[in-house]
Design goal:
This is CGNR zinc finger domain-containing protein. By secondary structure, the chain is mainly α. The protein has one domain: Jann2411-like domain (Jann2411-like fold, Orthogonal Bundle). It is 50% helix and 9% strand. It is built from six helices and six strands. A two-stranded antiparallel sheet has the order 1-2. A two-stranded antiparallel ribbon has the order 3-4. A hairpin with a 4-residue loop joins strand 1 and strand 2. Helix 3 packs parallel to helix 5.
Length: 184
């Protein structure tokens, strides 16, 4: 599903960061600054050296704020939360032609890496919400799962963060329940 040219990649940045903490099991998947560095680099954020513990805390605070967006009750609330993220992380939208074509950048290239990540993720989610509405932002329906995801399916039918894991678990549980009901 193509939302806007700007939101395609950055919308997944939000889900990737939020899913670095498993709220059901209390498992931290971003335990140190080196793990944050891996996440930033994986999304094309250039860093100078390993992030600090302060950067890690800022990223974890951002993670909590982005989780609130996925769980927001309506578009107005989600957009207000995202606007707050943009303000707190010093969004500076501007157009540039550094590679021969005009396109939008939303942060100063010299901004701290967590600010760059935050603003790009927020803009990605704003692109999704303003193009197709909140119906694309989900928290997994899987039993014992609270991972978040952006539903890019054509008919907006996705219910699980991973069809191979949570979806298969749900199908297996439903099958067991049907078999159990048939034997009674």
């Amino acid at each position: 599903m193509r939302f806007t040219s700007y939101s395609e990649g950055p919308a997944t940045w939000a889900e990737d960061l939020v899913n670095t903490y498993n709220v059901v099991r209390g498992k931290e998947k971003m335990p140190d600054p080196a793990a944050l560095a891996e996440l930033l680099i994986a999304h094309g954020i250039r860093i100078k050296g390993v992030p600090t513990n302060k950067d890690l805390e800022r990223a974890r605070t951002l993670r909590t704020a982005l989780r609130e967006v996925f769980g927001a009750p309506d578009e107005s609330t989600a957009i207000a939360l995202l606007n707050r993220i943009l303000a707190e992380h010093h969004a500076v939208p501007h157009y540039t032609d550094h590679d021969g074509e005009w396109h939008l950048h939303v942060t100063d290239p010299q901004a701290p890496p967590v600010d760059q990540y935050a603003v790009n993720a927020a803009m990605g989610l704003l692109g999704v919400i303003t193009t197709t509405g909140m119906s694309r932002l989900h928290i997994c329906d899987g039993n014992r799962c609270e991972e978040v995801f952006v539903d890019v399916s054509r008919n907006q039918s996705r219910r699980y963060c991973s069809p191979q894991i949570c979806g298969n678990r749900a199908s297996a549980a439903a099958h067991r329940a049907r078999r159990k009901g048939a034997t009674l």
